[in-house]
Amino acid sequence: MRIGITCYPTYGGSGVVATELGIELAALGHEIHFISYSQPFRLTGRDDGIFYHEVPVSNYPLFEFPPYDLALASRMAEVAEFYNLDLLHVHYAIPHSVSALLARQMLAGRGHKLPFVTTLHGTDITLVGLDRSYLPITRYSIDESDGVTSISAYLKAKTHADFGVTREINVIPNFVNCNLYEPMREATKREEARKRLAEPDEFILMHLSNFRPVKRVIDAVKVFAKVTRELPARLVLVGDGPDRSAAEWLAHDLGIQGRIHFLGKQERVHRLLPLADLMLMPSEMESFGLAALEAMACKVPTIATRVGGVPELIEDGVNGMLFDVGNVNAMAASVIALLHDDERHHAMRDAARRTAQTRFCSTLVVPQYVKFYEETLARAS
Ligand code: GMT
Questions:
Q1: Could you tell me the CATH superfamily of domain 187-360?
Q2: Nearest C-alpha to atom 21 of ligand 1 is from which residue?
Q3: Is the CB–ligand 1 distance for residue 285 below 6 Å?
Q4: What digits encode the pLDDT tens for the residues 198-241?
Q5: Where do the domains of the chain lie?
Q6: What are 17-57's pLDDT values in tens digits?
Q7: Measuring from atom 23 of ligand 1, which residue has the nearest CA?
Q8: DSSP 3-state assignment of 34?
Q9: Ligand 1 neighbour 15 (Cβ under 6 A)
Q10: With 0-12 CB in 10 A as exposed, 13-18 as middle and 19+ as buried, what is 258?
Q11: Is the peptide bond before 66 cis (omega within 30 degrees of 0)?
């Protein structure tokens, strides 16, 4: 198949999923065309069968807000026509599915069928999409999509309930490449790599996000502050975003800045994650929680909040632990108890990897997308 993929190319889980999907599909022999305003950050240009088309957004003094959605629709239609695309797959409904709808209509007039699939990721439904200025058009573009998928059963139910959408939505969960995201096999290599972050007797806690308020990175620092009073430990914060400076100030005020590494945005998180003992994901909301899955594939259990689609991934006490949002005392107490209990920690590490391997590996999930495309194309023809 020749597939056009549109996503937000900067940091964010939906862009990661879209990019990894494109890479996996290309490896299966499909031709993939990314259409976006900049190259998706995890796309290194290394793969055969992958093309990238930039969307130029020209400005004009009259435009206080340059109309990206229109430029995107034009580019989608152009690329589809020029490369004879079979379908478009847009990630995050706003505004991508509206642009895809326009592109489909533009081409229909010229006898080119261009069905599109919309994948719902999270705040396009739970936050931004609920804004009255976006809700009617988002609902319309979801209804008009040739196929709709959501990344968790939670998000599917939310879309039906909050948007009044009645159409079929297929749940296709987030996935991870279990051969790339894996534990470090050689203990000596792992010990060697950990030395760059911590002393040999110290535990490593990690947090990976785009530091938006919804991720509650401040809670991660608060949990760590309690843990480090009881255990030798370091906190490694991977990513960047609006709450980074607040987290830095908090670390400073608590006198623990010397025990925290702020690594900023990192391209090769699959090399960092296996070095951790635990992952912290104290989010206000996660429709799935891709960062936790990536950690789990590396044998790193996650201390997470019981929100959104997270319980579809994390089984409390088995492959990770779940808490109420903001309950930093309970999170810290459980981290301390778990790290004191080597046997339990090991069992949880094994269970985390097993969950990733048996339910969320790209080899299991990507074929679900391929099947869904085939069904969508058959319905649209
Ligand atoms: O919806 C968002 O907040 C944006 C999106 C992103 O680009 O980071 O995150 C969502 O999509 C991820 C990939 O499918 C999920 O793993 C995240 O849980 C989800 N974030 C939220 O629901 C807050």
A1: Glycogen Phosphorylase B; (3.40.50.2000)
A2: 286
A3: yes
A4: 999 999 999 999 999 999 999 999 999 999 999 999 999 999 99
A5: 2-175+362-380, 187-360
A6: 999 999 999 999 999 999 999 988 778 766 789 999 999 98
A7: 286
A8: strand
A9: yes
A10: exposed
A11: no
